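Repro case for the chain-ordering regression, as requested:
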Amino acid sequence: MWGENIATADLFANATDIHSIVQALTTLANASDVFFLVVMGVLVFMMQWGFAMLEGGQVRKKNVNNVMMKNMVDWLIGCVAWLFIGGILCSKGFDLSAFIDWWKQILGTNWPNNGLDLASWFFGLVFCATAATIVSGGVAERIKFSAYVLISLIITGLLYPLFVYLGPWGASIVPWHDYAGSLVVHGLGGFLALGAIAALGPRIGRFVDGRPVPILGHNIPMAVFGAFALAIGWYGFNVGSSLALGDISGLVCATTTMAMAGGGIGALIASRNDVLFTANGIVAGLVAICSGTDVVSPIGGLIIGLIAGLQVPIVYKLVEKAGLDDVCGVVPVHGTAGVIGAILTGILGLKIFGGAGGVSLIDQIIGAVFCIIYGTGLGYILAKIVGIALGGLRVSEEEEKMGLDMAEHKMPAYPEETVI
Amino acid sequence: MWGENIATADLFANATDIHSIVQALTTLANASDVFFLVVMGVLVFMMQWGFAMLEGGQVRKKNVNNVMMKNMVDWLIGCVAWLFIGGILCSKGFDLSAFIDWWKQILGTNWPNNGLDLASWFFGLVFCATAATIVSGGVAERIKFSAYVLISLIITGLLYPLFVYLGPWGASIVPWHDYAGSLVVHGLGGFLALGAIAALGPRIGRFVDGRPVPILGHNIPMAVFGAFALAIGWYGFNVGSSLALGDISGLVCATTTMAMAGGGIGALIASRNDVLFTANGIVAGLVAICSGTDVVSPIGGLIIGLIAGLQVPIVYKLVEKAGLDDVCGVVPVHGTAGVIGAILTGILGLKIFGGAGGVSLIDQIIGAVFCIIYGTGLGYILAKIVGIALGGLRVSEEEEKMGLDMAEHKMPAYPEETVI
Amino acid sequence: MWGENIATADLFANATDIHSIVQALTTLANASDVFFLVVMGVLVFMMQWGFAMLEGGQVRKKNVNNVMMKNMVDWLIGCVAWLFIGGILCSKGFDLSAFIDWWKQILGTNWPNNGLDLASWFFGLVFCATAATIVSGGVAERIKFSAYVLISLIITGLLYPLFVYLGPWGASIVPWHDYAGSLVVHGLGGFLALGAIAALGPRIGRFVDGRPVPILGHNIPMAVFGAFALAIGWYGFNVGSSLALGDISGLVCATTTMAMAGGGIGALIASRNDVLFTANGIVAGLVAICSGTDVVSPIGGLIIGLIAGLQVPIVYKLVEKAGLDDVCGVVPVHGTAGVIGAILTGILGLKIFGGAGGVSLIDQIIGAVFCIIYGTGLGYILAKIVGIALGGLRVSEEEEKMGLDMAEHKMPAYPEETVI
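-- result from build under test --
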């Protein structure tokens, strides 16, 4: 295996004319696309670990294992739902023949062009799993594990792929510009969470006599490491969204970087040096830039990030004032940041503002409204239906006080610190 | 440096005929292979960090620094052993002239084709280090640090490369299909650990009057983060095993993903929502798919993963019943999962089951038996010899009770929580 | 989006003659360079997370959130400083017209060749941010957050880019061989820290009656995970420094690996199994190899690493003896390791020692001396000026005792373990 090199250069060993060169180049190009989609997809898959740390750090010790299980299991279930349903629904809608062709193909190993279709399937999967796992951060510390698993299954198998199909990545029934999913992934995740949060109700002790009482997480550095891992993975999220090596864009890399910087600085200023808001501001800046990362200038990226970061502490307080317990602030970090990003794309993407053009503010606003209604509405309805189906959406009051780690998984997160 | 772009495109600036184009393409192809092997190798190297977290979370506070040292030092030693011996032994066997040529070459900087041979050497190294570090999880909390270092040196310098040479990646004296090492790396690591565990004996208090008494690790989230890091790295492990960009396979990416999902879901079900078994089930699914990841269908991958995940809690109990103290469950997660994966490759790799064909169940069974005997036998013998050479394999009872962090490294893992 | 493949292979669909093939190849080459620079740059960006863990683990619980904020904010500020000033100053010096052209360009989206210039800009940014964040580890646990932010701004906007411009990556006014920045990044960062440490003074209780009193960090495994993340990122640091896919070098990958091994083993031996020194030895080996990673042999890399690792505990003691409180040992790990690596490049890079040649020991010594003077001098002056500008460089004694997390950020790192 090592030492004897099977080299890609062998492709060109017998290339002696135009035709044979082009044939060899086509193989190299397909292989390069598979490599591109796998590396970018693995970076996005790293965001599952990032979300587990970001959410894990922001919950109490007695619920950390439950967060670990939710973040592992929504990925595991997402893979199966995306293989059998999601991956086809999102591009072909409810076309039964397309499903049957696909089911036949995944029973075999006949995948031409170095398996490019499966690399593309993988890149779609990690986007779907990201949308689903965002909800976890909003409903933490009181949702039943079985309810969360069922909600994840329905999001990854139906709600997300259908939203994709209706939006710009599918049949464009509702067309807006969304290069890497400010609305398709993050806005949807954030507003699905809003609906579920409303259906679920707040944690015990989160509001006392209508007054909000902060419930701090157990490990702030763990949450910051989560933000770092998300920021690293985000380069796969945005730069990978060219879907082909040949269309990769250095501009997307730069606007992603500057929006991250703007998001962190905006939240740092608005929260007066708060560690968690600064970390979440970085994520909000990255959420906001997804939509227009390919059509705004680097300065435009910085501006989008700044606005997205500044709004995080503000919207967090508004959600709290509405009596909603959004544990990890997913509504401001993914919901409203996604909407703001999409709308600003319709402005800073215009040529007069240095953008590449080809965007319309109206389309962006329509997309945003559609996302808010689709997400919040279906998030609420889904949570209520699952609650009925499982005899309740929440663990019992006694279980919530004991902590979900012991109640649902029979194991504390830090055994030597807990008398079992 | 920045701003003035030395671009790869310059390769083609003077390409004016077939010959000059092919020459430039050969350079691009070699450079792309080096880039491919480095990126995939770095993902596998990330698994060293994953193993450090997976094992670190599953030991008590008083032994965490010792786990950190074992996982750093088996890598450091593996680099040296692989440079001087392992990297040649695995492909050329005991051919002295090949060793001499290699030793001359590593004293210099003459490495043609963009140093492709050294990129290939690096990719072989990270596989070797993975096999060695698996043993660490089985022998934790009571092995002498010096004994572990010596065992690692012999595994990375002799036992692993020799096993590679005898198997399908070397001279194929024992031929079986093992695309990314279900047996060559993980089965070997798991059964070497079994042999060493048997030679070492259990931790104090692990069995009382013959009854097993669980000794919980100190940080379950740390272990789960380890499983996430391993899963991320595994895409380098499997997809990188094409060894050349031109042979990359999207099918390998998909079967790896589905086996991960099957492994986690299988262990989740078999352990009734246990956090550690679910995380280890994800790893077991990934171990099992290595062998046939290129010849089974995506559904085949899911099935292999499910079976590998289901068996983890079952085999863990059997090993425990046999009075063996496998701290991190490396026998079920790497040993039996590797064997199951290899054997199922001989079934689900057949054309009648949608596989790509070119596999034989008999070969797979022979390879599995060879791996179990070679690993367990040499693991036991090696541990016994090292024990004799160092005046004992284990730290003293007093040191084991104090904890290896203070006994062997004079520093607690969490200084502010420990009175020194 | 998924399912309908826009493939890179389409580039060659209409390539029917030499000219059209070369045109398509130029696009593929540029896209490959952008992909190369983004992936390598993301690996280096991962080192920000590595530094946050390495430093976070080596400070006490009451200062961990402050370390998180410093490591997030020096990145955020670095992005902005590098976009507006640093990225141009480093290659064009104080050429106003070059600044104006650049500022015009970043207000727009006109970036040819797949945005290759912006990918190159991004790769420069992550190097700059690395140099700045090294200082954080030296000044931890007593510097004002506002002072640190201002120091980072001036390092990333002025001191680092100017040093680059003067050195081998810019106008080469002081020419030495520094492939990936032993001096340009790490030596500079280490000696800037030395100057700032001298200006800042030690932590309360670090020296009692002139005798050094160790102040242990709170989480050694966190620091080791930081070293792992840095080592992973370092492959981007060194292998990415070819700046173009076509010039990638497998030799750089191998010498980087062997220097890492030498560094860890050297520090392990010199510190007699100390966990933190071994982890920092790995980093020191990687620092030292940056300069000559492309011109020394794999054995040369091992030797450079060994020497760099051996010196870490020795220089740490010398700095301590000088009454200087270098919390994370950045002077031996980045400063002197960088100088040693640069000088050894002038020896082991020579042909007689198996090197590729083209290096001069005199140049390397001149570069080292220039770096020590530039770094220590400007580090000291900058810290003093910032101290004056902000009414003091340090937090008050009372704040230092309370801990910077509560004093500067109003939030403990582990809320459930602290009575707020």
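Ordering looks correct now. Chain A is about 70% helix and 0% strand.
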